[in-house]
Amino acid sequence: MDYRDIRQWVEQNANDLMPEARFSHDDLNHIAMCLDHIYRWYHESYPIGDFLTAVVRNDFCESCYHADNVNRKALYLYAIFLENKIPFDYRKKANPVGAMK
């Protein structure tokens, strides 16, 4: 899966699952970039920031605190992407035993 695949997935799912959100073209690019970073974090140990770290740690409150205006509207897409496009053991990678949460 590369950025183009992720961008296509974002557009399809944003339109189908969240038509009321009315994401702009730039919003969809931003979300796709963030999801690409999550994908690369899982597969390549790509570094991610506070918002995406909170997302992969399944920390809803921290995700909301660190989200920008676009990502606040897109949290549902992040959940769907994690459940469908990232292997389920991402939770262990995000929350290693003994790590501070």
Structure in words:
It is a single chain. It is built from seven helices and no strands. It has helices at residues 3-17, 25-44, 50-56, 60-66, 69-73, 75-85, 90-94. The protein has one domain. By secondary structure, the protein is mainly alpha-helical. Helix content is 69%, strand content 0%.
Annotation keywords:
101 residues; mainly alpha
Structural Rg: 13 Å
Unreliable segments of 5+ consecutive residues: none
Helix count equals 7
Strand content: under 5%
SSE string: HHHHHHH
Tally of extended strands?
0
Mean pLDDT rating: 93
Structural class: mainly alpha
Number of separate domains: 1
The largest β sheet comes out as: none
Shape by Cα distribution: globular
**Termini, distance in Å?**
29 Å
**Helix percent band:** 55-70%
Q: Concise description?
A:
The protein is 69% helix and 0% strand. It is mainly α and 101 residues long. The mean pLDDT is 93.
Task: Spell out the blueprint of helices and strands.
Elements: H1 3-17, H2 25-44, H3 50-56, H4 60-66, H5 69-73, H6 75-85, H7 90-94
Helix pairs in contact: 1-2, 3-4
